[in-house]
Design brief:
Layout (H helix, E strand, L loop, with lengths): L6 E3 L5 E4 L4 H14 L2 E6 L2 E3 L4 H15 L5 H18 L11 E5 L6 H8 L4 E5 L5 E6 L4 H12 L7 E4 L5 H6 L2 E5 L4 H6 L2 E3 L6 H11 L2
Parallel strand pairs: 8-9, 9-10
Antiparallel strand pairs: 1-2, 3-4, 3-5, 5-7, 6-7
Helix pairs in contact: 1-4, 2-3
Length: 220
């Protein structure tokens, strides 16, 4: 499952479920980017691309790193390195319009960008979900999310909701928590995410997913 539920693929990469944004929805997202100046990336088939030119990408990077300067916490160190590599990758990508875009992602230097993005897309038939530590907003077709995508895949395989364990650490994982009873939020999640989960696992740094899986297997 990728693109926040907009695509589901089998182990060989074959697309089983696809819910791309329409041309009209893509244009609405692009207009919101122009109005807010936020960093906007589109995802198709798990590969990101952007229409921003290198000057715009460098400007975003400068603002992002300035905002996070001096915030010496593990997440910020990892995320700034991720953004640096991400921008270098995007500079090398072809900026021609891709036909199938499952998800648009706004990344911003601070939470101040978020209200304007929500306002710009409020009247559109879209789902918006904030990522971990509210550093991004992911945009998909209405009703497209991880919970619905995973449920559709389980039905295809003949697996019940009770046979599934889901893990998450962000707002975009809450749709899975609503659908599947055996849900775990990572200990390093936002408090709201932990409140919505049935259980809390150890943090990512402590291999929380592996610890839960080992416990379940030991009980079999």
């Amino acid at each position: 499952m990728c693109l926040n539920g907009a695509e589901v693929r089998d182990r060989y990469g074959k697309i089983l479920v696809s819910s791309p944004l329409s041309e009209e929805e893509l244009e609405a997202v692009l207009q919101t980017q122009k109005q807010t100046g936020a960093f906007l990336v589109f995802h198709t088939g798990g590969v990101p691309f952007t229409y921003m030119d290198n000057t715009e990408l460098d400007d975003y990077a400068d603002r992002f790193f300035e905002h996070h300067k001096g915030r010496d916490i593990p997440f910020t160190r990892r995320f700034t390195e991720y953004v640096r590599n991400y921008i270098d990758f995007l500079k090398e990508r072809d900026r021609e319009r891709e036909r199938r875009c499952g998800e648009a992602e706004f990344l911003f230097t601070s939470e101040e960008n978020a209200p304007a993005i929500y306002a710009g897309l409020r009247d559109r038939d879209l789902d918006l979900a904030a990522g971990k530590h509210f550093t991004d907003i992911e945009v998909t077709v209405k009703g497209v999310n991880k919970g619905n995508a995973l449920l559709a895949y389980c039905r295809k395989l003949g697996i019940s909701k009770e046979e599934v364990i889901v893990f998450g650490d962000s707002e975009n994982d809450l749709s899975m928590f609503r659908v599947f009873p055996h849900s775990y939020a990572m200990a390093n999640s936002e408090e709201e995410t932990k409140r919505k989960a049935a259980h809390v696992a150890l943090s990512n740094e402590e291999d929380g997913v592996a610890a839960v899986i080992e416990t379940v297997l030991d009980q079999q």
